[in-house]
Design a protein that fits this description.
about 15% helix, alpha+beta, 6 strands, about 110 residues, DUF779 domain-containing protein, globular, single chain
Length: about 110
């Protein structure tokens, strides 16, 4: 996959997740200004990757209000760059197959437990 800009919905969800008060949020917000989608999940769900890496660190959790679906924002720790945005992982529960992230106003967002 070639890198592409975030869709309006992806940008809105990322901004909502990064509005959460977590350590290093200001730096992650600066990175988010220019972030691009570099990959996604092979199943066709709306998960998106900003970069590849190892050692995923979950930073922000969200559940969809009125449902069982959830998603989280993750980062990677890189020795040369510090903590970098990794992507948004979506977990759909049930038979409905989603291809787009839910609207941010439907998300209940909390900092991840570290």
């Amino acid at each position: 996959m070639h890198a592409r800009p975030l869709t309006e919905r992806e940008r809105a969800v990322l901004d909502a997740l990064l509005a959460t008060d977590v350590d290093g949020a200001a730096d992650l917000r600066r990175q988010a200004v220019d972030v691009q989608v570099t990959g996604g999940c092979g199943c066709g769900c709306p998960s998106i990757d900003f970069r590849a890496g190892r050692g995923m660190i979950v930073r922000v959790d969200a559940v969809v209000h009125g449902g069982h679906d959830s998603l989280f924002l993750y980062t990677f720790a890189e020795p040369e760059h510090g903590e970098v945005l990794g992507g948004i992982e979506y977990a759909g529960i049930g038979d409905e197959h989603r291809t787009e992230l839910p609207p941010p106003d439907r998300l209940i967002i909390t900092p991840a437990r570290r």
